[in-house]
Amino acid sequence: MRKPRNFDAELKALGDKARGLKSRKVQQLGELVIATGADALNADELAGALIMLFETKDTARKEAWAKRGATFFQSRARRTAPAAERHAGGARAQPGVAQPSTGSKGAA
After folding, report:
1. What pTM did the predictor assign?
2. pLDDT per residue over 46-104, tens digit each?
3. Can you give the residue ranges of every domain in the chain?
């Protein structure tokens, strides 16, 4: 005989997981802003720049930005963690590693 499913518990667990993912996304976005130095911009400047990026239709320019971003992440990954930790550590290990390095840069 099968055990009946507890839909309320499953729904609550999915809601908790969604909140956790959203929270992690917001935290990682903040870390990205700090790591790139964009925290020196005021909110209006940053919002305007992001809107301009979003509205850009020039694919060559977007590809150049993507290459530059990939280079940025590759260079940061080499400085913050060995390759085995980057790939196996998961999302929780990387923010903890990245935060001290970005904090020391901001203080310098």
Report:
1. 0.56
2. 999 999 999 999 999 999 999 999 999 898 766 665 544 544 444 444 444 344 344 44
3. 7-107
* Angle formed at CA 107 by CA 104 and CA 108, multiple of 5 degrees: 90
Q: How many CA atoms lie within 13 A of 94 on its CB side?
A: 22
> Do 81 and 98 contact (CB within 8 A), yes or no?
no
CA 100 – CA 105 distance, rounded (Å): 9
83 is written with which tokens?
């390759």
Residue entry with tokens 């992440």: 73
Burial of residue 102, with CB atoms counted within 10 A of its CB: 0-12 exposed, 13-18 middle, 19 or more buried:
buried
**Identity at 35, one-letter amino acid code:** A
Write the CB contacts of 46 (distance below 8 Å, at least 6 apart in sequence): 33, 38
Tokens of 99: 């935060």
**Residue 98 contacts residue 76 (beta carbons within 8 Å):** yes
